[in-house]
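User:
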Amino acid sequence: MRKPYVILIGSASGIGKSTIASQLAKQLNIKHLIESDFIRAVVRGIIGKEYAPALHSSSYDAYKNLRNKANFKSYDDLVSAGFDEHASYVIPGLEKIIQRAITDFDDIIIEGVHLVPGLIDIEQFKDFAEIYFFVLSSDEESHKERFVKRAIQIHRGGKQLDFFTENRIIHNHLLGEAEKNNVSIIKTESIDKSVEQILTIINKSCTNIKLTNNVEELPEVIDIIINNNNGSIEKIIYSLKGFKDPLVRDVKVSDYDSAKRFIDNIKKNPNVKDDLNNLYNISKYREFTICAANNEIIEKIKKELTDKGFVYNE
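Assistant: Predicted structure:
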């Protein structure tokens, strides 16, 4: 019997987490979808403003209530510290909800700005639930566009729009904490692609496929798997002539940015490219472990790679 799903989706305001969380709940048939703002409202009713002024502020201006403002070297650090203090009051309540969901064996999705990697302790739940933690990211222009739309939709235009800079600082702070704590970062230029990418990680339909492409064709292979189909490349196995055991490389390429870094590293470093060419020359094929959101997409990837002549025929 599988463990219950606990899916956490954090981001700054205006990135698309509510939309993505809602779509995930529908696709995964999860009935419990909770916004961290509701938990904050409950905690505010318990802890008075005089005891926790940062809690009773918004996440983006909680820094104004810090007592040690002069100790911070930069405005970014100040805003981030205020945000962390604000979130720290909400996180114990979120952890209690996760514990209750696990006890009742209920799948749950929690979304909100208060889900800060490193502050919320997910390690305590990993033996009892399938924990998936995602932080959403966006380029500044797309973020601002969504931020303005959301502010208008929830009738907070005047005040909230004045704090886009602070929200952007929170966005960058969350990404930094996600990287430090090995939390998956999902880009949200396309909501549908973001949902599919998350489903790929959660559902993890995987297969091994043997490819005969050369190094110059590698960008096209990556394009088919990742950019066209929101799949991922988990590892590459090289069967080398004259060697009994294969060479296994864990690559974990799962999104456009990581794919671009992977290809750019090859293009910009002649030694890396030469080494890879030598490796390709002494291997009959490369066995890719690829994953996608479901088996249908896996089959689509296989077909596209076959149509390009990249699949090894035994």
